[in-house]
Amino acid sequence: SQQGEEDPQALSIQEGENATMNCSYKTSINNLQWYRQNSGRGLVHLILIRSNEREKHSGRLRVTLDTSKKSSSLLITASRAADTASYFCATPQGAQKLVFGQGTRLTINP
Amino acid sequence: EAEVAQSPRYKITEKSQAVAFWCDPISGHATLYWYRQILGQGPELLVQFQDESVVDDSQLPKDRFSAERLKGVDSTLKIQPAELGDSAMYLCASSPRTANYGYTFGSGTRLTVV
Q1: Tag placement on chain B: N or C end, fewer CB within 10 Å?
Q2: How much of chain A is in helix, strand and coil states, percent to nearest 5?
Q3: Residue of chain A with shortest Cα separation from B40
Q4: How far is A15 from chain B (nearest CA, A)?
């Protein structure tokens, strides 16, 4: 069963612009994770935010978490062509496994 | 940087044939996961190992799929017989212990059943 739902399903922006993707989830969590997947490749872990954190930064990435709304957002600033990929949020189900959303397909146009 | 190794990278097989995928996780990672990803969708868990024991195989179609991790290190996922609907990306991932850590994924095996 899908825990996280990403929005939008697809996003196309110009290079240099900021990209924002959202994730909503259904049950209480102790952390939320974001992953990137380049076409035809495996997923790469980007960032983990814990339930007691509201915001976290990593390079050009900024993640926010609102546990009252059961939602998270991923902001990529100053986008580059290399950021073209699918982005997934994932939440633990119990302590054992991650459940992934359907993803947001991001296209950066030169 | 340590990687999760998967092979083969691509596999084309005829329906009703047997197919196997191999995964070698990062050394020391106790937990190993096999996910299936249909094109355009998110990964879905097939089976999870803690060391050599299966923790969760509730979504594994056990009539045709099997998985093992005999010595708690590398793992094999098998499909027999393959069906057209099995065409997907099969991803292996590992983590130190639980889902409270980030996963490291392999590059995946793209399976096409014809």
Answers
A1: N
A2: 5, 60, 40
A3: A102
A4: 24
Of A30, A42, A97, the CB nearest to B56: A97
Amino acid occupying residue A31: N
Tell me if residue A28 falls in helix, strand or coil. coil
- Can you give the pLDDT at residue B1? 73
Residue B9 pairs in a beta bridge with none
Q: Tell if the CB–CB gap between B99 and A93 is shorter than 8 Å.
A: yes
Q: Across the A/B interface, how many CB contacts are shorter than 8 Å?
A: 67
Could you write out the DSSP letters of every residue in B73-108? S-EEEEESS--GGG-EEEEEEEESSSTTS--EE---
Residue B27 three-state SS: coil
Inform me whether the C-beta atom of residue A39 falls under 8 Å from chain B C-beta atoms.
no
Strand B44-50 to A104-109 pairing? unpaired
Per residue in B9-68, pLDDT (tens digit) is: 999 999 999 999 999 999 999 999 999 999 999 999 999 999 999 999 999 999 999 999
* CA atoms of B108 and B96, how far apart (whole Å): 20
Nearest-neighbour CA in chain B from A83: distance (Å) = 18
Instruction: Sort out which chain A residues have CB atoms less than 8 A from B57's CB and list them.
Output: none
pLDDT over 70 at A1, yes or no: no
Query: CA–CA distance from B5 to each of A15, B21, B26, B33, B82 (Å)?
Result: 33, 11, 8, 13, 23
